[in-house]
Write a structure and sequence with these properties.
Structural class: mainly beta
Largest sheet: 6 strands, antiparallel, barrel
Number of strands: 6
Strand content: over 45%
Helix content: under 10%
CATH class: Mainly Beta
Shape: globular
Order of helices and strands: EEHEEEE
CATH architecture: Beta Barrel
Number of domains: 1
CATH topology: Thrombin, subunit H
Strand order of the largest sheet: 1-2-3-6-5-4
């Protein structure tokens, strides 16, 4: 059996509670989803500078998400390498049948905490 090439990361998902707080504000619950076989790529210096110029975000890593993953990666906290990051920008996705490897989505992350 082949060992996965990626690492396991923590994806922090939030759900809206049906019961608001005492001041009638929405209450959100955060829970961790373990996602296996995620590739962590280091961006080039040029990509970091371009992203800072375009969006004002400091690109730390690019994550490659495995095929078949159905989690929401838009504006989510993620944890790996002992740090917390936040995804930003849109998730880009390729066509499964045209991509020979195990990953078909990419998302950018910046340092969060």
């Amino acid at each position: 059996m082949n060992k996965p090439a990626g690492i396991t990361i923590d994806l922090y998902d939030v759900t809206l509670s049906e019961t608001p707080d005492d001041f009638n504000r929405p209450v959100y619950t955060e829970h961790v989803i373990k996602v296996n076989n995620v590739l962590v790529g280091e961006p080039s210096t040029e990509a970091i500078a371009d992203e800072l110029t375009i969006s004002g975000k400091h690109l730390a890593y690019t994550l490659a998400i495995p095929k078949g993953d159905t989690n929401n990666w838009t504006d989510r906290k993620v944890g790996f390498f002992g740090q917390i990051f936040r995804t930003f920008g849109e998730v880009t996705q390729g066509i499964d049948d045209l991509i020979p490897l195990a990953w078909n989505k990419k998302v950018k992350v910046e340092i969060y905490e």
